[in-house]
Design a protein that fits this description.
Blueprint lengths: L4 H10 L7 E4 L2 H10 L4 E5 L12 E4 L2 H11 L3 E2 L2 E2 L3 E5 L3 E12 L4 E7 L6 H7 L4 E5 L8 H10 L5 H19 L2 E12 L4 E3 L3 E4 L20 H8 L3 E4 L4 E5 L2 H13 L6 E4 L8 H9 L6 E8 L4 H15 L5 E7 L2 H12 L7 H11 L14
Parallel strand pairs: 14-16, 16-17
Antiparallel strand pairs: 1-6, 2-3, 2-6, 4-5, 7-8, 7-10, 8-9, 10-11, 10-12, 13-15
Helix pairs in contact: 2-3, 5-6, 9-10, 10-11
């Protein structure tokens, strides 16, 4: 779950991380009032959950409350990176002497938190990694011991900091790690970490992503519809289903993310275009009814393709849900299925007798059939398998 910048900075303040003075507003008048309180010269920052807002025109500067009002009015209600701007963060403008990059994320190889830091802040870290990868400092944090002060100071030295800046940076990094652990974060990022002309070090930006699977422990955060790319993805999350809208016309229902990705690759290989990623494996396999309902709500879907393979996720239970959905929702689109796993014989009987679907014997044959029905350009069967 992504947090807005003002929410991330709220967490930073709780842990004692220095951030610029500022306040979140939802109107141009409130923006002018905030600018007055902050001394007149401010930064107006649109609050959206996408990166690159500065390049998209979502960050403006104002030198007076009146100018802040005008620029806030110009931003509010606009669409940036497919999001409508309804909130602004008004902050004091900093006199910047230097910008750094600092983040903590998860290293999937080491299964441990990983610090990433760069003396080149304020830029896309991907660009820095591509152009000057040697400029990115990486430090693994032992998960059971935690971040040690000497590690924080060592990174400060590697960034070229000296004097009081070393201890200031180390303190910020140690507190950032507290945010990371306390809120079950997947990512905490400060870009830029600013050193001002007066020698102060502040988090000028804040990006915090909380692991969705830990939200039950982070009850102060509610993942509402505004945090999803579209309404259907939000609905899917309410049933515990993983759903992403794509641009094609073949509606996909699969058990397990790996199988789903394989099926999407096969659809593309055979010349088709998937309309979505949707997986309902694991603990959510009994939600096949809702999975079918979600796919049917997509007006782009011309064909429905079902592929399941599961041991814990029982094929017969999945089939019961699908058969019920077909009876009640009466889809007009043709349905192609390949269903394997525990209770497979019963699953095939249910689909055939209760839903009128003859399942294919393997995934490749089902995908080819779906592609043809959707008008794709199937170009053969590389495995030489049919139904």
């Amino acid at each position: 779950m992504k947090l807005y910048e003002y929410e991330g900075k709220g967490l930073f303040r709780e842990k004692g991380l220095p951030v610029p003075r500022g306040m979140m507003v939802t109107s141009a008048e409130a923006a002018a009032e905030a600018a007055t309180q902050l001394g007149g010269e401010v930064v107006i920052k649109s609050q959206i959950l996408q990166g690159g807002r500065g390049k998209a025109g979502g960050i403006k500067f104002a030198t007076s409350p009146e100018e802040a009002r005008e620029k806030a009015a110009a931003i509010l209600g606009t669409t940036l990176k497919a999001e409508t701007v309804s909130k602004l963060l008004i902050e004091e403008r900093l006199a910047i002497a230097r910008e750094l990059y600092l983040s903590i994320t998860i290293d999937p190889v080491q299964a441990s938190p990983l610090i990433m830091a760069s003396a080149t802040g304020g830029m896309d870290i991907e660009e820095v990694a591509r152009e000057t990868p040697e400029g990115i400092i990486k430090e693994t944090i032992p998960i059971f011991r935690g971040l040690m002060p000497f590690q924080a100071r060592r990174i400060a030295f590697l960034l070229g900091l000296t004097g009081k800046e070393v201890n200031a940076f180390a303190a910020i990094l140690l507190k950032l790690y507290q945010v990371f652990r306390s809120y079950d974060a997947e990512l905490v990022e400060i870009n830029p970490l600013v050193i001002t002309n007066e020698g102060k070090m502040l988090a000028a930006d804040a990006k915090v992503n909380i692991y969705d699977g830990a939200l039950f422990r982070q009850k102060e955060f509610v993942k509402g519809p505004e945090r999803y790319d579209n309404e259907r993805e939000y609905q899917a999350a309410q049933y515990g289903l993983g759903y992403v809208k794509l641009d094609g016309n073949i509606g996909v229902l699969c058990t397990g993310a790996g199988l789903t990705m394989t099926v999407l690759d096969l659809i593309k290989y055979y010349g088709g275009q998937p309309a979505n990623f949707l997986e309902f494996g694991g603990a959510t396999y009994k939600n096949s009814y809702y999975a079918m309902q979600l796919v049917l709500e997509d007006p782009d879907v011309k064909v429905i393709l079902i592929n399941t393979f599961g041991l814990v996720a029982r094929a017969d239970v999945i089939s019961q849900g699908l058969a019920q959905a077909i009876k009640e929702l009466k889809p007009r689109q043709p349905i192609v299925a390949s269903i394997r796993g525990t209770g497979e014989e019963e699953a095939r009987r249910i689909l055939k007798e209760e839903a009128g679907i003859e399942p294919y014997a393997n995934v490749e044959a089902a995908v080819q059939a779906a592609v043809k029905l959707a008008g794709g350009q199937s170009h053969g069967d590389p495995l030489g398998q049919g139904n």
